[in-house]
Design goal:
This protein has 154 residues and is mainly beta. It has helices at residues 10-13, 136-139, and strands spanning 2-3, 6-7, 17-20, 29-31, 34-36, 49-57, 64-69, 75-79, 84-89, 97-101, 106-109, 114-115, 119-120, 125-133, 142-151. The two termini are 15 Å apart.
Length: 154
């Protein structure tokens, strides 16, 4: 099975977390040299957070057959140099959903949501910021096998 990524929107993302999209309303604060929009998304995490960078490489024809989740933290994903597709799955849903996140957007993946590594769209490789509770890679990663599927990254 090959899944086509869906564009992120509040409705599509709600089962998995939240999305930060380019603001369309009036800014919270503005001046001659700035415009600032606050409260575009919310997440809670206990303790310190860390920011990492993940670089991923296109692997056409290689199916996704495993996912991971974190029980004690949300995971915020922000594309740096290209859009990406990210597979997501809830325990109660046997099929994955794949979302497309553009530059200038961010995805907040709720705790306990299964997810795969982001996949570059339109490039051989891309990088993205990963923000979550400090120590998550060492202390809060659960992995599981899933029915193999491919993602159409065009």
């Amino acid at each position: 099975m090959k899944l086509v990524p869906k564009r992120v929107s509040a409705d599509v993302v709600t089962p998995f977390g939240a999305v930060v999209l380019a603001p369309s309303g009036a800014p919270t604060s503005e001046g001659p040299g700035h415009r600032f929009w606050s409260d575009l998304a919310r997440y809670s995490v206990e303790g310190e957070t860390e920011i990492g960078i993940c670089t991923v490489f296109a692997q056409p024809g290689v199916p996704i057959d495993s996912m991971e989740r974190h029980l004690r933290t949300p995971e915020i994903l922000v594309p740096i140099d290209a859009p990406f597709a990210v597979p997501l799955m809830r325990d109660r849903d046997p099929a994955a959903t794949v979302l497309r996140v553009e530059l200038g957007e961010a995805l907040v993946v709720d705790p306990a949501v299964w997810h795969g590594a982001c996949l570059p769209i339109g490039r051989a490789r891309s990088s993205y910021f990963v923000i979550f509770r400090r120590g998550t890679p060492q202390q809060d990663v659960e992995k599981r096998q899933v029915a193999p599927f491919e993602v159409d990254v065009g």
